[in-house]
Amino acid sequence: MGELTITRNLTAAGCNAQMELPLQSLVRDIIDAATGHANQLGFGYARLIEDGNAWVLSRLSLQMTRFPQVGECYSLTTWIESFNRHFSERNFEIKTGGGEILGYARTVWVAINIATRRPADLTALTGLRDSVSDRPCPIPAQGKTRVPETFDSQVSYIVVVSDIDSNRHLTTARYVELVVNTLPLGVYDRCSVSAFEISFMRECKFGETLTVSSVRDGSTVIAVISDTEGNACCIAKLVLAERIAGENAK
Amino acid sequence: MGELTITRNLTAAGCNAQMELPLQSLVRDIIDAATGHANQLGFGYARLIEDGNAWVLSRLSLQMTRFPQVGECYSLTTWIESFNRHFSERNFEIKTGGGEILGYARTVWVAINIATRRPADLTALTGLRDSVSDRPCPIPAQGKTRVPETFDSQVSYIVVVSDIDSNRHLTTARYVELVVNTLPLGVYDRCSVSAFEISFMRECKFGETLTVSSVRDGSTVIAVISDTEGNACCIAKLVLAERIAGENAK
């Protein structure tokens, strides 16, 4: 009960151009594992909706040595690190079917009232407290990424039907794609993503026009997705690592 | 060996705004089932690449009574209807874990030489002939959709990193999304997709600017995705069915 493990097999149709699991698919797997574990523990969607509440992903950070490759079996194991009235911290270990550790992720989930979209009070969910695990997570807690003063690139994006999830908001995986897409394909041929962090501030809806602003400094990209009034909807940091020694990412 | 069945469970994170499996995800499942069956029969990616060839999805049509809903378990069963030197016809039955038939799909796969992108000769794959099944598929063979003379809407789209698949081309599921996105969200609240057809003519690459042209006539939408020279890359037809009697899709 303290942990849940989900397993996946990476098919060719699930790969990106580098024949690996795309970052946005890993994020989707993380959400699936979290959802499955919360359901199993009895404080998933069905329980929270009784009080008019729902879980919302607030922050996510991950570090990967490498990503699963085509044909490879991989697993995500999740456990709860902490819990209080307003949010829950949940961690993940990603490894291959053969036991090789590929990386770790940390997430922060907030319960909100689905009508008011304001934070809910989780005090009634006493079972959550018993589910806290003392398993350590070897990556540091997510830092605060500051909005850069200048950007290299600003691109408009209109939210379309296929972006919308079961909460009728822009789906988490699509925010990740918008950040991934700030770099050209050749960069991902030369580099893989070694670390990624994202914080969500505001939910985006169908038909909204967003601005994706990004700036790259060496191996680090910072991207901000903002609405028409200039409010930041999310801020993300993506760190690249060279695939082959001796060649710098350009 | 004559058939392969894959099973899936629709998680909340995998749903669209209508709490159902998105059309593009169903298409991805169809490709996964086809890939898995071809691998199992010994003429998947690994066998074809020995001759410098690869399977490419050329045509797909499907009819659905309804789509899988959140939390629902569903399966796809696939079998080969026919095979000749140049292409293979493969069908699918989609049903719930409880045995309710949700729909059927037909696909046509062409083997191409990965260097020349020209049709390959499959005569050497004698095993394919033995795998042909006499199981019927109750939906008609895909018709030819003609390019409309006029369109209601034309939208530009630039191919980004997250669109690119393991063949380094625009991934099939994204073509489907581009077609789905020609309609606003409210239409999918009122209507579900009862039939869908797509034919691929030309592969699209990273950075290309495409034009998505669409026209709606009652419950039928026809969409053409074309390149900067006006060549059609694919043509698709999407048919809507009202979710509730008495209300017309507008």
Describe this protein's structure.
The structure is a homodimer of 250-residue chains. In chain A, helix 1 runs antiparallel to helix 4. By secondary structure, the first copy, chain A, is α+β, with helices and mostly antiparallel strands. Chain A has a ten-stranded antiparallel sheet. The radius of gyration of chain A is 18 Å and the shape is globular. The first copy, chain A, has two domains: 142 residues, Hotdog Thioesterase (Thiol Ester Dehydrase, Chain A, Roll), CATH 3.10.129.10; 108 residues, Hotdog Thioesterase (Thiol Ester Dehydrase, Chain A, Roll). In chain A, a hairpin with a 5-residue loop joins strand 9 and strand 10. Chain A starts with a strand and ends in an 8-residue tail after the last strand. The first copy, chain A, is built from five helices and ten strands. At the A-B interface, helix 1 and helix 4 of A face helix 1 and helix 4 of B.
Summarize the structure.
The structure is a homodimer of 250-residue chains. With 250 residues, the first copy, chain A, is an alpha+beta fold.
CATH superfamily of the largest domain in chain A: Hotdog Thioesterase
Overall pLDDT confidence of chain A: 93
**Structural domain count of chain A:** 2
> How would a crystallographer describe the biggest sheet of chain A?
10 strands, antiparallel
Percentage of helical residues of chain A? 10-25%
Would you report the number of β strands of chain A?
Answer: 10
Low-pLDDT windows of residues of chain A: 246-250
User: What name does CATH use for the topology of the largest domain in chain A?
Assistant: Thiol Ester Dehydrase, Chain A
* CATH class (first level) name of the largest domain in chain A: Alpha Beta
Which architecture of the largest domain in chain A per CATH? Roll
DSSP strand content of chain A = 35-45%
Overall geometry of chain A: globular
Based on helices, strands and strand pairing, what is the structural class of chain A?
A: alpha+beta
Gyration radius of chain A (Cα, Å) is: 18 Å
